[in-house]
């Protein structure tokens, strides 16, 4: 199970379309929201300022394993470092409280909407930048490569890697 399948999706795209196809790609990753305390931990981790939380009890160790198995922001940190600047966008609003995927409490849902709307307002430039990247025109060379690869695929010719 992968809670942030962005890296898996990139791997699949590379297998299907080749590594060259990823060079001119834009990757958008959309999260379901993250509790504020975890959001702050990951901001510190990204700056190398996270505190050492290596607990020694079995409960601490189990919780650490569970957190790593359900971690979504670790994938984000890696992709943010590896992918070229301006090609990867992660949208995952910080929430004042963690909500279950099947949450139905109207008050909690309204809080989630409020937190998300605030996130969108604060990151409007990031949303616009991502939209511009998605809507940009492909170059003539990119279109020619697409055409040749598509024709080759239709004729059963495999791409040499």
Walk me through what this model shows.
- This protein has a two-stranded parallel sheet. A two-stranded parallel ribbon has the order 2-4.
- The chain is mainly alpha-helical and 161 residues long.
- The protein has one domain.
- It has helices spanning 6-17, 19-23, 36-46, 58-69, 73-82, 106-122, 124-135, 140-154, and strands spanning 27-30, 34-35, 88-91, 94-95.
- It is built from 8 helices and 4 strands, in the order H-H-E-E-H-H-H-E-E-H-H-H.
Features:
161 residues; two-stranded parallel sheet; mainly alpha
Q: What overall form do the CA principal axes indicate? A: elongated
Number of helices: 8
Mean pLDDT: 80
Strand order of the largest sheet: 1-3
In whole angstroms, the N-to-C terminal distance is 29 Å
Total domain units: 1
Q: What is the tally of beta strands?
A: 4
Structural class: mainly alpha
Radius of gyration: 20 Å
Strand content: 5-15%
**Biggest pleated-sheet summary:** 2 strands, parallel
Order of helices and strands: HHEEHHHEEHHH
Q: Which residues form runs of ≥5 with pLDDT under 50?
A: none
């Amino acid at each position: 199970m992968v809670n942030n399948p962005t890296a898996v999706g990139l791997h699949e795209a590379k297998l299907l379309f080749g590594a060259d196809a990823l060079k001119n790609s834009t990757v958008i990753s959309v999260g379901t929201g993250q509790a504020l305390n975890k959001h702050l931990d990951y901001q510190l981790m990204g700056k190398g300022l996270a505190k050492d939380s290596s607990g020694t009890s079995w409960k601490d160790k189990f919780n650490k394993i569970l957190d790593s198995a359900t971690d979504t922001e670790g994938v984000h940190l890696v992709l943010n470092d590896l992918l070229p600047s301006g090609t990867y966008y992660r949208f995952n609003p910080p929430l004042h409280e963690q909500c279950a995927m099947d949450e139905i409490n109207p008050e909690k849902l309204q809080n989630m909407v409020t937190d998300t709307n605030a996130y969108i307002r604060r990151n409007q430039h990031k949303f616009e930048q991502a939209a511009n990247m998605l809507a940009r025109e492909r170059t003539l060379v990119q279109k020619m490569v697409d055409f040749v690869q598509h024709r080759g695929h239709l004729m059963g010719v495999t791409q040499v890697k």
